[in-house]
Amino acid sequence: MNLPKEEIDDRILKIFHDLRFIGFFLPEKEWTYRGNGVRLGETETPIFWYRPEDSETYRVIYGDLHVEDVYPENLPQ
Question: Which pTM does this prediction carry?
């Protein structure tokens, strides 16, 4: 990704804040973090997913920071 360093830093900071929020306030909810070692821009690599309340799908954040809704059977093992 050809983003300015400041924009990359801002995106990373936002993700960390979001992860901290989810981990602190929703510990009983279903969520997984697997971003260790993933480099920014890895479009096919899921780094974090959680199941919103009353949802059939999981919200998945990928290494390039895009977000998709994914059915449980399509989550990484």
Answer: 0.65
